[in-house]
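A favour, since you know our structure tokens better than I do. Could you add the entry underneath, on a fresh line?
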Amino acid sequence: MENGNKQLRLLWCSAFALALLACGEADGFLVDITYVESAVAKGAVCLDGSPPAYHLAPGFGSGVNSWLVHFQGGAWCNNATDCLRRSLTAFGSSKKIANQSDFTGILSNTPDYNPDFYNWNKVQVMYCDGSSFTGNKEEVDPKTNLHYRGARVWQAIIEDLLTKGMNRAENALISGCSAGGLTSILHCDKFHQLLPVGANVKCLSDAGFFLNVEDVAGEDHAATFFNDVVTTHGSAVSLPSLCTSKLPAGMCFFPQNVVKHIKTPLFILNAAYDSWQIAHNLVPGDSDPHWQSCKNDISQCSAKQLMTLQGFRDRFLEALEEQGNSSTRGQFINSCFVHCQTEMQKTWFAPGSPVLGEKKIADAVGDWFYDRSPFREVDCPYPCDSTCPK
């Protein structure tokens, strides 16, 4: 199991580009874990029945009444076997979570690295349910003893944070990376409703706009997978009702069917050539071995493969355009071959960070949050952007 956990951590660092638990960054700082023991009595538990957990860095100075709640990513489990395997890792059990987490990027406490949010109360919510916090089954699986309670975990953590001062928030931003970015979308309006009336509340999704697209074999791999996630976890009742009243619940796991209904201001940060989506949804698994080099490095793609990726980008931009042009929406869609850009210092705010519309990601998000200036930019097609990380 130790070797398995090491492999999982290596996969997490490379596939999701996270630098919090396993990879670390020199510019971060360590934050102790908090277990929400009171949640257990409410049935709000991780897959293995352990209590949910988060890491909290208290705000200071002018940021004492401002809150950033950031949800960790880590894909999903779509059947009992997969979820049982997950429950033996830090993505299904708080017993496996590290006692400290390295806060960097959007979680940094240094103005030079995080100019607008450095002194806020910053929370990293650990992802231990495998459903983007939507699971809602009352019964415990008698064969595996698995608990599908992600929606309760989300509610219990937010309620716990409210008792620790978030009930006095003047500013609040819910954010997340990958599956956590999807969490930010699916729970955006609900989060707003739980915050004080009059507070400036917004949502940020980083690499969470997963596209409903056929894979290179013409199969609906992503749609089938998301439908299995929703069925396994009993997520239908937790998904936005404005979507589920019109579409099958599995389709309401796709942001393109949900974002148009969100009333709370939302910022979508995504790569048009999202490396995870290309490797797992467009060319899943070993469906086409000729894609292996291209999936790992876009510069190794053939001319024909690049045409396929340009088609993926076109579909992605079309799905974004269908969401409308609300003045409260922010958008930073670059042409880098990456997945998640808020959690790593080198992509969030540092010398050499990605630039779009003459702004780095941190500047664009900060200007949007504080209404200093709107930001809705889409990058030119690959390979025109020289600011992308190599």
About this structure: The radius of gyration is 19 Å. The first helix runs from residue 2 to 16. The chain has twelve helices and twelve strands.
